[in-house]
Amino acid sequence: MPISRSAATPRRRFLRASAALGAAALPAARATGAEPALEVPAWTRTPGEPVLWHAYGQPDAHEAHVVRRTRGTAVLPGAASSLTPLQNLHGIITPTGLVFERHHAGIPQIDPAQHRLVVHGLVQRPLILSMDDLVRFPAVSRIHFLECSGNTGVEWRGAASTSIQQSHGLLSCCEWTGVRLSTILQEVGVDPAAAWVLAEGADGAAMSRSIPIAKAWEDALLVYAQNGEMLRPEHGYPLRLFLPGWEGNASIKWLRRLKLGAAPFMTREETSKYTDSLPDGKARQFTFTMEAKSVITYPAVDHRLRGRGYYEISGLAWTGQGRVKRVDVSTDGGASWREARLEGPVLDRALTRFRADWQWDGGPAVLQSRVTDETGYVQPTGRQLIAQRGLNSLYHYNAIQSWKVATDGSIANAQV
Amino acid sequence: MPISRSAATPRRRFLRASAALGAAALPAARATGAEPALEVPAWTRTPGEPVLWHAYGQPDAHEAHVVRRTRGTAVLPGAASSLTPLQNLHGIITPTGLVFERHHAGIPQIDPAQHRLVVHGLVQRPLILSMDDLVRFPAVSRIHFLECSGNTGVEWRGAASTSIQQSHGLLSCCEWTGVRLSTILQEVGVDPAAAWVLAEGADGAAMSRSIPIAKAWEDALLVYAQNGEMLRPEHGYPLRLFLPGWEGNASIKWLRRLKLGAAPFMTREETSKYTDSLPDGKARQFTFTMEAKSVITYPAVDHRLRGRGYYEISGLAWTGQGRVKRVDVSTDGGASWREARLEGPVLDRALTRFRADWQWDGGPAVLQSRVTDETGYVQPTGRQLIAQRGLNSLYHYNAIQSWKVATDGSIANAQV
Questions:
Q1: B103-282 architecture in CATH?
Q2: Measured distance CA(A355)–CA(A358) in Å, rounded
Q3: Of B60, B106, B141, the CB nearest to A91
Q4: A96 vs B: CB within 8 A
Q5: Which of A47, A138, B35, B318 lies at a C-alpha separation of 20 to 30 Å from B253?
Q6: Residues of B in contact with A67 (CB under 8 A)
Q7: β-sheet bridge partners, residue B210
Q8: Which is nearest to B123 in space by CA: B262, B265, B260, B220?
Q9: How many C-beta neighbours within 10 Å does residue A65 have?
Q10: What is each CA distance from A352 to A91, A151, A296, in whole angstroms?
């Protein structure tokens, strides 16, 4: 084959090609030692695996490191979380097998034929629905992010994470399909005195949260499918509540009961947990909305740069208040900023992928991203966030994240 | 628990609620025989499975029937196809484990560290790229459908399929991430005489297609990720070509070589295969674009109606020419039509989910959908398609599909 390997080519061409984009040079193709022979490779010389090798497909064996991981050891194996490997992912859709988990009494094994949703309390016509009943109602599909309000919580105590999977991995984005809760509220007839809805799960914790009825009418969903297929067991099979833009904890999985009441039900998950202690000794309660946040997923603390030259900075931005409006990136720790490219579609309360060209000169650098959402809200610095909220919080940390690049290409988590 | 089961409630409420939508009644909740007790179910009384039961998640055991399936028996197990179970799916994203397959010599097992892409022929600077090189270039992510031009081909000979998985299952829609081919063309410098690009796979068939260079410049992608994670083996790991809106066969998997030339290379896959024989003995060649098509996925031939009353008709529409503009549905075999709801986002060359309310009166019905795309192209009837193309074709069947509902609720595939 008349090929002359031209290692210097990428640098020159990408330089020229990207000049119009304001970008800089791609480094020369890496000298990888022995170059594979250009003759036909071994795997072309033999028949491959048959069709339906897996009737339900699985990742390649070389990707076995791309898995959910826990954060330390839980006291109870069923009361813990697993995190999404953002450092290995692309685009905005999270593959369902890698969507994060947070359970309080493990994953129940539910027979969908036996599962029922009970709707009662301050309603005119209490109702019991089977899954067969539920799927008969008009459905909607929506792409939305899901984030635990404890995501990035370790950063309240300093730059504690050595992996973006550990710092930001309680975050995923899927296409969710189900019935509008408003459709079911119309079925049962809501008593005018009803102001809150208790949602209760069928897991061993009977996980329960109080939801303002306005959210139930506005956009709450009773979800049975995720990324096209039925929910997985760990995500609430066969039925979960889904509250777009709100903290994940409130989107009760394995949903078995909705009770309408005049006041919040003051469950454990909104009194001793999932509240935000403030410096003055008071606590914020029912802080459902996930405020705007962004993070650079490449290059991040998990990666190591392969020498100076061109890199595409890539990351994720999102807001529980609607759409991302713009993202700015800094490579000098916030001294200067420039606008990143937003990759469409930019959807309501979905992850948005941003990209920015970067020419690394080989010197120290600090990479940051800062999102502005359509309400005008700007992601705060860590100092701004702590000035407002103090250091007693566990939840709702959404500050700008800093990745500090050293001259050897290694990257550290550093609060600046 | 003070619940009185009110089986008649859904009918009345959904009637009232949906009146504004022009819809009709939901039937009474089905009498399922023994009603599960309303006390706390067994799975709530015991701790569930631990977090990271599966570090990479899997579907629930009750969904084991939702798998890819083949169409008959292949002469060679590696030269066959598997089909996506559209009858069980929701929304527009196809879960990667269920994305259809079509292989010509099986699925090669490729070491991504050893894989190379060679770009040569009528170029100024031939190039060999490793995967590490490729992922350094700027990337894009796009949601697009992928359809085999043989999809629905069995319908050329009459209503041959008794499952929508068999008739329409060579169709999927994913988020694809990779490098624009135009970026690589800029790197290598295209000779002005170059008009076609040969794309060759690293599988045992060395699958090859000729692509007009205009498509390479316009929107062709070198894809390495699908629905957020690296490609699966059966979808081209670690690298494939992706040609938005074009027949799937041309989006060469396991891509190892791109050769630029002045004329098409006349490979087997564009001479003896993937051409369309016409009534006059001539054949259409290089008919890449997948024309507009739609199909009702529920209720479809796979389903059985549970009695008269409300059903939401739901289906998929797509076009290789851009965006879906509108979908009309008929429940009387095309005698009358009404416009369906398109569920957003309606994306360029992506599946679009449509929905329409339907009140089944219990009598015979024939369900059809008809898409119009943004170019004004209208999906043809089977008769119109055959009048134009004759009956010698295997590929590019995109006629309106009919599902015939009998009074007992069973549904048949019927060409009308």
A1: Alpha-Beta Complex (3.90)
A2: 10
A3: B141
A4: yes
A5: B318
A6: 55-56
A7: B198
A8: B260
A9: 8
A10: 8, 17, 12
Q: Say if A171 is an interface residue toward chain B (CB within 8 Å).
A: no
CATH number of A293-413: 2.60.40.650
Per-residue pLDDT 10s for chain B (416 aa) are 333 333 333 444 553 433 333 333 333 343 343 444 468 899 999 999 999 999 999 999 999 999 999 987 667 778 899 999 999 999 999 999 999 999 999 999 999 999 999 999 999 999 999 999 999 999 999 999 999 999 999 999 888 899 999 999 999 999 999 999 999 999 999 999 999 999 999 999 999 999 999 999 999 999 999 999 999 999 999 999 999 999 999 999 999 999 999 999 999 999 989 999 999 999 999 999 999 999 999 999 999 999 999 999 999 999 999 999 999 999 999 999 999 999 999 999 999 999 999 999 999 999 999 999 999 999 999 999 999 999 999 999 999 999 999 999 999 999 87
> Which residue of chain A has the CA closest to B112?
A62
Query: Taking CB atoms and an 8 Å limit, are A229 and B66 in contact across chains?
Result: yes
Cα B318 to Cα B295: distance, rounded to the nearest angstrom: 9
- Contact in structure between B48 and A103 (CB atoms under 8 Å): yes
As a whole number of angstroms, the longest Cα–Cα distance in chain A is 81
Q: Cβ contact (<8 Å) for A3 and B69?
A: no
**Domain boundaries defined on chain A:** 101-282, 293-413
- Chain A partners within 8 Å of B25 (Cβ): none
Tokens standing for residue A52:
């339906």
Name the residue of chain B whose CA is nearest to A236's CA. B60
DSSP state for residue B54 in the 8-state scheme = S
Judging contacts by C-beta atoms under 8 Å, the chain A residues touching residue B233 are 49, 53, 60
Q: How many Å apart are CA A200 and CA A80, to the nearest integer? A: 19
B137 touches chain A (CB under 8 A): yes
Q: Which two tokens stand for residue B332?
A: 């009387």
CB contact under 8 A, B78 and A49: yes
The pairing of strands A255-261 and B338-339 is unpaired
Annotation: CATH topology of A101-282: Sulfite Oxidase; Chain A, domain 2 (3.90.420)
Helix (H, G, I), strand (E, B) or coil at A313: strand
